[in-house]
Design a protein that fits this description.
The chain is of the alpha/beta class. 35% of the residues lie in helices and 20% in strands. The chain has eleven helices and 13 strands. Helix 4 packs across helix 8 and helix 4 crosses helix 11. The longest helix has 48 residues. Bound molecules: guanosine-5'-triphosphate, magnesium ion and zinc ion. The site of magnesium ion has 6 residues, from helix 7.
Length: 352
């Protein structure tokens, strides 16, 4: 890969503002292009290299480094000093019960939410993705792939007007350079975009068509249920000829949302507007008298499915928020306990 300037790698003043004089002397900014078990692959102004990940980084937090992150590495040794604050961060809750945060990508400008014009099309799932995107401070764009295999692409686009009123949506044939060129406005130099969606919808196909190379493996979907085969298994930052950065991600089976209350409100602004007319300010929009949202469902101006999904996502986000709070509280109490023990030991030592 030819060497790139920091700006070409996606560097902004937001990151340089985080550097101290000492950092400038000792460290080199680097962009994380791939994350492996105990090392990361990074891009710097002087080239690319592998840097080992300090053990306590991986042990302490699950989402310590993500693809797209900016980190500081030591000038004298291939060692990580610290990660810089993220301009944006896309994550989900890992499958299973432990509310573990799993990173998807960091410092992304545009999130392409990919779904196909077939069995994968699912408004409730799209609403999940959009809540995460809005909460991550990333602009979402919906891509409906496989438009070449259906006559109904326009119908699907029409349906999206109720699911994602403020979000741009495009129908594309991921295999065709012509239709994929519609993505160019988001792919200018230094921009970072990520592709997310179920397995088999064409994320890697899009990356290959855009880059003009077969960089990512792709595979046919299963005939019986139109599901993908989970061909892509790791996240990667890929350079585009025009200077943009693409992040291909593995297809997701389950997308559990974290504490994304703010993103949820942004994805459902129509409901927030209606809620202002509910009789009770703390209306739960389920059985109350004078609920404007229930009225809209009865009158047919709001899809019952959309309300149900909103209530479900709200509960999921509240659960995540509660577990974050509980974990913090546990850590705080643990910190207080170890402090008390230390003080006790010091006192005992002094009196000995
Ligand atoms: N006809 C047509 N086929 C497509 C289109 N997009 C993807 N495909 C095909 O769908 C299959 C799956 O595409 P991939 O790009 O591997 O899907 P993916 O989203 O990367 O899947 P995972 O890596 O498993 O998450 C491949 O056989 C592609 O050729 C499209 O727009 N039109
Ligand atoms: Mg793929
Ligand atoms: Zn209400």
């Amino acid at each position: 890969m030819p060497t790139q300037t920091l700006r070409q790698l996606g560097w902004r003043s937001f990151y340089s503002q985080q550097l101290t004089l000492e950092d400038l002397e000792l460290a080199l900014p680097a962009r994380v292009a791939g994350v492996h078990r105990n090392r990361v692959h990074v891009l710097t102004e002087t080239g690319e290299q592998d840097v080992s990940l300090p053990g306590d980084w991986t042990a302490q937090h699950d989402a310590a480094v993500a693809v797209g992150d900016w980190v500081l590495i030591e000038r004298d040794a291939p060692r990580l000093m610290r990660a810089l604050d993220r301009a944006s961060f896309i994550s989900r809750i890992a499958a299973g019960s432990q509310q573990r945060v799993q990173s998807i990508a960091a410092n992304v400008d545009t999130l392409f939410v990919v779904t196909s014009c077939n069995e994968d099309f699912n408004p409730s799932r799209l609403e999940r993705y959009l809540s995460i995107a809005f909460d991550s401070r990333v602009q979402p764009v919906i891509l409906l792939t496989k438009s070449d295999l259906t006559e109904k692409a326009e119908l699907y686009l029409e349906q999206l007007k109720n699911v994602a009123p403020q979000v741009e949506a495009l129908a594309v044939n991921a295999l065709s350079v012509d239709t994929v060129s519609q993505l160019q406005p988001w792919l200018t130099s230094g921009q970072t975009v990520a592709f997310v969606g179920s397995s088999g919808v064409g994320k890697s196909t899009l990356v290959n068509t855009l880059s003009g190379e077969s960089l990512q493996a792709t595979a046919g979907i299963r005939e019986d249920d139109a599901r993908g085969r989970h061909t892509t298994t790791s996240r990667q930052l890929i350079a585009m000829p025009g200077g943009a950065w693409l992040i291909d991600t593995p297809g997701m089976r389950e997308l559990k949302i974290g504490a994304v209350e703010r993103g949820l409100q942004a994805a459902f602004t129509d409901l927030s507007v209606l809620a202002q007319s509910c009789r009770f300010r703390d209306c739960s929009h389920q059985r109350e008298q004078g609920c404007a949202i229930q009225r809209a469902v009865q009158e047919g101006t709001l899809d019952a499915r959309r309300l149900d999904n909103y209530l479900k996502l709200e509960r999921e986000a509240a659960n995540a928020t509660r577990s974050v709070r509980e974990r913090r509280e546990r850590e705080r109490q643990f910190g207080r306990l170890s402090k008390a023990i230390q003080t006790h030991r010091r006192r005992r030592k002094r009196s000995e």
